[in-house]
Design a protein that fits this description.
single chain, 509 residues, 10-stranded mixed β-sheet
Length: 509
């Protein structure tokens, strides 16, 4: 298992080889699985802080911020926070079906970004494509390329081999890969790396990432252009205040933060303001979180107001002219060259069943699950458990109150009878700081899914792997039903250099 000290030593060792021994920026680099996506796919990523003057300095970085910026409207359309540990962060960002096809910028920064005037955000061109709608393109005036900084790549000090057990595979067959790091004398080199194996058309050659080039050249581009306003304190990602009606409270208000199965009680300051630090917001991937005024005589008149620090930063970043697009054939507005033959033939089209739920099924208020009871006869345990059996003492459910649902194993808000329901002001959604979720790896060693067509353009993703004492590592995965050329690539940190390498395989029927 990796430790802060081990990764910190690797980062500090490669820092000694750079042309600038003490870069002022953190050197944030984000490895994404690919750069061209479709709606309802996830952007899988690993983020590295490359410039650590000492292993202990890794503790300065605890949160990664990701935002997706529309290149045409200059507006942030998605944003999220992720836990950063040992100068590395991992996660995934879902691209909803409501996202318009077109050019976007994936922009990342850390909790240290507002405090360090020399720190820079990381930017990566991302495109969302559709078979049914042409993507919007950024106007030519905004297609600015990074200014050349005169730096060059030094001779590499580490050799990498990335070798599959075959260059050709059939559908749903197992592929095993070996990775090896050695120095110029053939001695093993320690390293950690992230790896992706994707449909090659979703990772064109001109957009392949290179952590080594970024480390020695790319990070030394133009100086930071964004001057943040409002004296933002990103160590306090969520701030807010509570009013009782239109008035400020005269004493602290009891509050509760609910994240899935967990609940944290706290009090506001005397003037009704409150702050949620990073550690209180850590939560599993895809979970929701809400902050609410606690129950009591004043809950019904309480109004919770929430301010997310990253929202202000993201709006300021969105005003930048990042380099967005790559050339596209004007005769092919849908840019069908990025799709597989199966996709173009419509074989992959997967219709999702839309279920209209009954009135007593849960919905959401400000991101928190709610229950509506059309019969207006719901009961709860005196302990606050939703719809207990008659063997327990029970009381009528009260609209607007929160209860624990033992079936879903999480807190809910009782919506009440349809005629009683109104939007509640005492509860508001907040963004959690997510832990990474595992990439779903298919296993075709059994025939349970033989009738399903699997055409995920990312065959394999692993946030972090480490070499053994021989400088070697292995990984394996199954191909799916998609045929064509696939690109596997690694972005690595070694005790000698950061390195990058790609290798193609062919999948046939």
């Amino acid at each position: 298992m990796r430790t802060i000290h081990t990764i910190g030593l690797l980062l500090m060792t490669i820092l000694a080889h750079t042309q600038d021994k003490f870069p002022k920026s953190s050197g944030l680099f984000v490895h994404t699985d690919k750069v061209i996506y479709q709606n309802n796919e996830r952007i899988w990523f690993t983020a590295y802080i490359l410039n650590l003057p000492s292993p202990d300095s890794a503790i300065l970085y605890n949160t990664l911020y990701i935002t997706l910026i529309n290149g045409k409207t200059h507006a942030p359309v998605l944003s999220a926070r992720y836990v950063m540990d040992a100068a590395i962060s991992q996660g995934s960002l879902l691209l909803p079906d409501t996202l318009s096809p077109g050019d976007y910028s994936l922009v990342a920064y850390t909790n240290n970004y507002p405090r360090n005037p020399y720190d820079k955000e990381f930017q990566q061109w991302i495109s969302v494509r559709s078979l049914n709608k042409a993507p919007f393109r950024v106007p030519a005036a905004s297609r600015k390329q990074p200014v050349a900084n005169g730096r060059t790549m030094p001779p590499t000090k580490v050799w990498v081999s990335l070798v599959p057990d075959s260059m050709d595979y059939h559908r749903r067959s197992k592929s095993t890969w070996k990775v090896r790091f050695i120095d110029e004398n053939g001695r093993p080199v320690k390293g950690i790396f992230s790896v992706s194996c994707v449909y090659a058309k979703r990772l064109p050659d001109e957009r392949k990432q290179d952590i080594q080039h970024f480390y020695y050249v790319g990070q030394y581009g133009p100086e930071k252009k964004v001057t943040l306003t409002n004296n933002l304190d990103i160590t306090k990602p969520v701030n807010g205040y509570v009013t009782l009606g239109e008035k400020k409270p005269r004493k602290p208000v009891r509050m509760v933060l609910m994240k899935g199965k967990s609940m944290l009680s706290f009090k506001t300051r005397e003037d009704g303001t409150f702050t949620l630090p990073d550690s209180t917001l850590y939560a599993p991937a895809n979970s929701t979180a809400v902050v609410s005024a606690a129950g009591g005589w004043n809950q019904s008149i309480s109004r919770v107001h929430v301010v997310e620090t990253m929202d202000s930063i993201n709006r300021q970043l969105a005003r930048q002219d990042y380099p967005y697009t790559i050339p596209m054939n004007p005769r092919d507005p849908l840019d069908t060259s990025v799709f597989s033959g199966q996709e173009l033939m419509g074989r992959y089209r997967q219709l999702r069943e839309v279920v209209i739920k009954a009135n007593n099924e849960p919905g959401f208020i400000n991101g928190m699950p709610v229950k509506e009871d059309s019969t207006c006869g719901s009961w709860v345990c005196s302990a606050g458990h939703w719809r207990c059996t008659k063997t327990f003492p029970s009381i009528p459910a009260i609209a607007g109150q929160r209860y624990f649902d033992p079936v879903r194993e999480m807190y809910i808000v009782f919506k009440g009878c349809p005629q009683d329901f109104s939007q509640q002001e005492f509860i508001k959604k907040v963004n959690p700081t997510y832990y990474a979720e595992e990439f779903p790896v298919e296993d075709y060693s059994n025939s349970e899914s033989a009738d399903e067509l699997h055409l995920n353009t990312t065959l394999y993703w692993e946030y972090m792997l480490a070499t053994n004492t021989k400088g070697e590592a292995t990984f394996s995965f199954y191909t799916n039903d998609l045929t064509g050329i696939f690109t596997c690539g690694i972005q690595a940190i070694t005790e000698t250099d950061p390195v990058s390498l790609y290798c193609n395989i062919n999948v046939v029927e």
